[in-house]
Amino acid sequence: MPTLGSRGAVGAMSRSLEQLSAERDAAKALSARLANGEAVLEIDTNLVDDSIVPDRMEGSDAGFMAFKESIREKGQLVPALLRPHPAHQNRYQIAYGHRRVRALRELGRPVRAVVQDLSDDDLVIAQGKENGEREDLSFIERARYATLLEDRSFKRDTIMAALSVDKTELSRLISIYRAVPVRLSDAIGPAPKVGRRRWMELVDRLGEKKSAGKLDGLLSSQPFVAATTDDRFAMVLSAVTVRPVKATKATTWTAADGKKIAKVERAGDRFILALDEKVAPAFGDFVLDKLPELYDAFRHTKEGT
Prior knowledge:
InterPro entries: Chromosome_partition/occlusion, ParB/RepB/Spo0J, ParB/Sulfiredoxin_sf, ParB_N, Plasmid_partition_RepB, Plasmid_RepB, RepB_N. The chain has a domain at 255-304. Helix content is 53%, strand content 13%.
């Protein structure tokens, strides 16, 4: 017959086995939740690296500081999405949540994140869709993201899925971004209030020969650097826009016989003489024949003064 001591030992062992079994089941459940991305973990931001393709351009420091202050006061409300780093053990890579990670890193806090095993395609699709659902990227950021993905040899089907666009819109995004010099788009920044139409207008203006060289000095000027990103776009567009020269009101030249033969108009550096051939037929040809003689007389007059 078992003694009281032996029964107690058996009971304790049984409870230990049950506890081990429960812990094992809990560990399995946690592993399954982690694999499915169901669990939110707290991860040291120093173990987190950026995405393979950045989706944001540098915006205003004021905007980021306000975002960081919100996290300081209210905490991180929305988890980031990470994947185990494909090249470095015990490190992670961001799918989305770059600003959250940056803010928390500067605050010295861990990031709350869901961790999932993601392929490169899965990562960029998740990254693009999260930004799309929040309508958080500006037009030029979307165009830049599409172009960077193409430059990294992602298939267009993947890029379309990431940005939720069709082939036509994707081609438009990429063509517009490639038409603007990178140094210029980087200097302008995300310009969240500037849509496709105005970026297309800038592309057209940049293609005009008369706009060449008009940006020299602007991008490094203090007013440009100090301006908001939307204002920087406006400054660039204004600099490359060729404005039509306002012409003076045309005056009519009347001959001694009272015939109104010519109209004279000045527009910038142009002097325009229009002859009415209905009033004075062949007079235009006569003036044209006399131009060499008139010009020589003009030069002699100028040299003599």
